[in-house]
Amino acid sequence: MAEITAGLVKELRERTGAGMMDCKKALMENNGDMEKAIDYLREKGIAKAVKKAGRIAAEGLIFDAVSADNKRAVLIEFNSETDFVAKNVEFKDFGKKLAEIAIANNVKTVEALNETEIEPGKTVAQAVTDLIAKIGENMNIRRIHETESKDGFVATYSHLGGKLGVIVELTGEATEANIAKARDIAMHVAAMDPKYLNETQVTTADLEHEKEIARKQLEAEGKPAQIIEKILVGKMNKFYEENCLVDQIYVRAENKETVAQFAAPSTVVSFARYKVGDGIEKKEENFAEEVAAQIRG
């Protein structure tokens, strides 16, 4: 039997919103396995939400840039130790410069960016070292995402002062109206945090996992087996609507139109969403709701 420490119970509580005793029991029932304990709480209908524990303790900002022809876009996460430094003008200017360099040199990886010259005779990596020495706090380029559109165009959106960054790729021409529409969809992505583009990206394993959770919830409610299968069809459709970008109700829609309908006649080809520190929930379970509320408003 694995030791059920207070730290394990605390982590499970933070990730699910369940009570301390329920979390302890879930861990005991599952020999300390965190993921199985989460499923156990969901099956019992106890978990309020599954929270992905952040693995990287980092502050900083997401910087974005788009090429002049709207064919390429990048997101870069540049980290600092404290939010105080992230608000520093020099830090912000340096991050913007990183994004511009990445676009100008078609950079696709952190390694390549670090090796690129920021000025004659000085690489980005050397410039970061100099900035660390000047400001007195550790900083690093954590990750970079580039989207290159062959048959369409890209647009970006930055929210919460750079705490969130999004790239959206659409089919069609990069007209002013189409770019505005793509930015609106990027705002939706920032607010609603879709996990997939469309149903084809949902793996069989993911779908079966959700179906099993729902089935056990229905069984616990005493639903007959023949009724459960019918209910599951509706629940899986709901899963697609909630998790697939093109099936979600557009966040600013007044007539329940989906993102796919809002994008028409263009279609959404891809999207990328960066949040500082990956899944660190600094405002815990209310973060996504706050973003959505600000965008709707």
Report on this model:
The protein has 297 residues and is of the alpha+beta class. Helices cover 46% and strands 19% of the residues. The chain contains 12 helices and 8 strands. It has helices at 6-16, 20-29, 34-43, 83-86, 89-104, 110-115, 124-135, 176-192, 204-220, 225-243, 259-263, 287-296; strands at 59-66, 72-80, 117-119, 122-123, 139-148, 152-159, 164-171, 268-275. A 3-stranded antiparallel beta sheet has the order 1-2-5. It is flat and about 70 Å long.
Count of alpha/pi helices:
12
Q: What proportion of the residues is helical, as a percent range?
A: 40-55%
Q: Uncertain runs with pLDDT below 50, 5 residues or more?
A: 49-57, 279-287
Q: What gyration radius follows from the Cα positions, in whole Å?
A: 22 Å
Determine the N-to-C terminus distance: 51 Å
Question: How many runs of DSSP E, i.e. beta strands?
Answer: 8
What structural category arises from helix and sheet content? alpha+beta
Mean pLDDT equals 88
Tell me the strand percentage band: 15-25%
How is the largest sheet built, in terms of strand order?
1-2-5
**Net shape:** flat
Largest sheet report: 3 strands, antiparallel
Secondary-structure element string = HHHEEHHHEEHEEEHHHHEH
Quaternary structure classification: single chain
Keywords, separated by commas or semicolons:
flat, 297 residues, three-stranded antiparallel beta sheet, alpha+beta, single chain
